[in-house]
Amino acid sequence: MDDKELYTTIVGLKNYEGNKVFKIGSIVRLVKEPDNDYDLEAIACENKYIGKTGYIANSANTVTKGTMSAGRIYDKIGDVSYCEVKFVSKDSVIAKVLSDDKIEELKKENVEDTFFNPQLD
């Protein structure tokens, strides 16, 4: 991924656990779903403890202004990547896609309550 900051919108919260599972600063795993029946550029969002919590928005009706759709970030991230929650609203979450360098830094720090803390695996 390049050095440009990428922000995206997580939607579909009502189909899972709602917005209560997101807190500002928490890390969300992004997983590409190329075999998704509805969207070939689908990117699922997962929480460490409960699994899938939504999807990256990929429609002009759901992408928050100033953020990028799943289609726009799909080729900029790996099959699995991560983002950090920045804002939480009733129906969506704004998150910053983490750079590879930031992911490595978090892994080394064993940040508590994230996917990178081996004590939580």
Automatic annotation (TrEMBL):
This is HIRAN domain-containing protein. Gene3D superfamilies: 3.30.70.2330. InterPro entries: HIRAN (IPR014905). Signal peptide: none annotated. One of its GO terms (molecular function) is nucleic acid binding. It comes from Methanobrevibacter thaueri. Residues 3-109 form the HIRAN domain. The keyword Hydrolase applies. Keywords: Hydrolase, Metal-binding. Pfam families: HIRAN (PF08797). The keyword Hydrolase applies.
